[in-house]
Amino acid sequence: MTKDNDQTEKTRAPKAARHGLVALGLAAIVAGMVGLSFAAVPLYRIFCQQTGYAGTPQRASVAPDQVSDQTVNVRFDANTMPDMPWRFVPEKNEMTVRIGASNLAFFKATNLSDEPIVGTAVFNVAPNSAAQYFNKIQCFCFTQQRLEPGETIEMPVTFFIEPGFLDNVSTKHIQDITLSYTFYRDKGQGVAAAPAESGDKSGS
Question: What does this protein do (predicted)?
């Protein structure tokens, strides 16, 4: 091997090492980004539930003692994803509720398929500014729901609107609020909790 060839080989070795380090670094960055993308969904949902951001209602254990005579109309919207073979509807399309009072609404779901289906409901409130004052005490959306073929269940939602709704300049003039749900099929068909307590559980 000549002196020039020897020098060339010595030059190539550090370059190859540097290229290898760059490749490893890029792979680590990509892996980190993938990990963050998976973590972002639950973290974003927690953030929304804590702040009411993006129309996400908050969760509470009890309704407040203060109840106003002022009312607001709450409309109910029910949807399913295209691959979800359920019929999902509100029992009533809307309710007139007093600010601060506890209210009970019902939704019905029927499994139209010939196999057990596990579903999860996501929810939001419109307009977004009202979400931080819209609180749920009980909701079928807190757990997965499993329906056998042809089964129908009635699912309750207990909610209230905080009195602070009337003190906020961006919400105190709102007359109508929409509570919307969308059911997604659980692809993993995980073990679901018992269906929400139901007054109607039939095979029709």
Answer: Exerts its effect at some terminal stage of cytochrome c oxidase synthesis, probably by being involved in the insertion of the copper B into subunit I.
Nearest C-alpha neighbor of 101 from the set 142, 71, 59, 60? 71
- Structure tokens given for 203: 């095979």
Looking at the fold, whether 32 and 106 belong to one and the same domain comes out as no
∠ at Cα 173 (169, 175), nearest 5°?
145
Question: Where in the sequence is the domain holding 7, given as residue range(s)?
Answer: 1-51
Amino acid at 197: E
Where residue 179 sits, what CATH number does that domain have?
2.60.370.10
User: pLDDT digits over 12-47, tens only?
Assistant: 555 555 555 555 656 555 444 544 443 433 443 444
Q: Hunting for tokens 């500014």 — which residue is that? A: 129
The answer to whether position 134 is within a domain reads yes
Counting the structural domains of the chain, the total is 2
Distance CA 94, CA 99 (A): 15
**82 and 39 in a common domain:** no
Q: Which amino acid type is present at position 55?
A: G
Q: pTM (2 decimals)?
A: 0.66
